[in-house]
């Protein structure tokens, strides 16, 4: 099936060349970071996580979200999703690869990654996070490739693939739970120190991932001329809506607990993010309110059935939802966790241009991988007459 990567239209090659250019920009900037160190970033002694870890956190959720297609299809026999499951699995592969690259650039020296594996610390959540991510990448690669191959030759996938699929469902929940444990297990970081953080992560992932998948499928549908299926879109948007409602509800629970209990440590981060402080940066407040407005706007468009099923409105609703969750679980979560510090001091953070360029290169790597894998999937499905 790999030969299908080499056969495409001029637009396909132009798209890959464009992504290659972005990857080149990111790689060159990363060489500067290797030479001058993490001083090129906005991180400091008091703010040790920044834009890289924010993207890592968000993308783990995107990877885990493939389970929202696998679960109904294989546990409840919902056949309408089987046509698009492969796209969710391949998107998960791209997301996990980006996660790993964000960890590499965040650690400064890439060889430090080897320390996690060569000298494992079994009480370290980071060690388990790396293990589950590698495992999830392998599971999706094997399952996706084997099922696509069987579809090509029109044969039933072997039984062992089903066992791997069942394993991948549990694995998907575990990768994002472990990622949440990385943050919520840190005493002194009051914004993260909450038992519902893992639940918030999962709810956010299960609305943002399918929303992004559906948006991308809508774009590819126009290019590759295939039908996603009205029933599949309808069911997926209902899942997205419920998950987003739960995500917002859990956030509001956090707000209530913080302000009703009047615990300063829990109120300060929310004040810093949404009301601003003398020590804060003004853009943070604007940034968070953009996210809040996008979240409310997406729910306004998704909850009424008539608006949710309108194909002209749906892409706007999904786009707003993706942007809102990216702000909330990305920079919003990271900045809120470091404001204030455990010593009640304030340290500001803003991503620098090198950080953004390196991140752009990593996003381009993910888009490159997903583009190639989706190209293979679409060609095979067209060949087999299953698209």
From TrEMBL:
GO cellular component: plasma membrane
Entry's transmembrane regions: 12-32, 52-75, 84-105, 125-143, 163-185, 191-218, 239-263, 283-304, 316-336, 356-374
Record's keyword terms, sorted: Cell membrane, Membrane, Transmembrane, Transmembrane helix
Gene3D superfamilies from the UniProt entry: Formate dehydrogenase/DMSO reductase domain
Family matches, as InterPro entries: DsrP-like, NrfD-like
Chief site of localization: membrane
Annotated membrane topology: Multi-pass membrane protein
Annotated compartments: Cell membrane
Record's keyword annotation contains Nucleus: no
Keyword Membrane recorded: yes
Family assignment from sequence similarity: Belongs to the NrfD family.
Name listed for the protein in its UniProt record: Putative sulfite reductase-associated electron transfer protein DsrP
Organism: Halodesulfovibrio aestuarii
Gene transcribed to yield this protein: dsrP
């Amino acid at each position: 099936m790999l030969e299908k990567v080499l056969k495409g239209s001029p637009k396909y090659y132009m798209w890959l060349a464009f992504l290659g250019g972005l990857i080149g920009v990111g790689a060159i900037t990363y060489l500067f970071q290797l030479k001058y160190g993490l001083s090129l970033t906005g991180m400091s002694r008091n703010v040790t996580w920044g834009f890289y870890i924010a993207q890592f956190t968000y993308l783990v959720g995107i990877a885990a979200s493939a389970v929202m297609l696998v679960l109904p299809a294989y546990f409840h026999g919902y056949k309408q999703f089987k046509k698009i499951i492969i796209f969710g699995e391949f998107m998960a592969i791209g997301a996990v690869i980006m996660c790993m690259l964000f960890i590499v650039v965040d650690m400064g020296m890439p060889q430090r990654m080897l320390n996690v594996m060569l000298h494992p610390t079994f009480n370290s959540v980071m060690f388990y996070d790396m293990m589950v991510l590698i495992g999830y990448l392998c599971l999706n690669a094997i399952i996706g490739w084997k099922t696509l191959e069987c579809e090509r030759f029109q044969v039933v996938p072997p039984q062992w693939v089903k066992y791997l699929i069942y394993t991948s469902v549990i694995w998907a929940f575990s990768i994002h739970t472990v990622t949440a444990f990385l943050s919520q297990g840190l005493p002194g970081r009051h914004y993260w120190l909450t038992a519902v953080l893992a639940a918030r992560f999962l709810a956010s992932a299960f609305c943002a991932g399918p929303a992004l998948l559906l948006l991308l499928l809508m774009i590819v549908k126009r290019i590759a001329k295939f039908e996603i299926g009205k029933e599949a879109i309808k069911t997926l948007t209902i899942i997205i809506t419920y998950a987003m409602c739960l995500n917002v509800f859990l956030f509001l629970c956090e707000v209530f607990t913080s302000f009703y209990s009047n615990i300063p440590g829990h109120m300060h981060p929310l004040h810093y993010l949404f009301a601003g402080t003398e020590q804060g940066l003004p853009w943070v407040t604007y940034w968070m309110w953009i996210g809040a407005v996008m979240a409310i706007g997406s729910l306004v468009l998704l909850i009424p059935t008539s608006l949710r099923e309108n194909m002209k409105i749906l892409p706007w609703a999904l786009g707003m939802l993706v942007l809102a969750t990216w702000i909330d679980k990305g920079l919003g979560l990271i900045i809120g966790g470091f404001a204030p510090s455990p010593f009640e001091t304030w340290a500001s953070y803003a991503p620098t241009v090198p950080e953004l360029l390196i991140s752009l290169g990593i996003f381009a790597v993910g888009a490159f991988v997903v583009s190639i894998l989706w190209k293979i999937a679409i060609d095979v499905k067209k060949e087999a007459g299953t698209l």
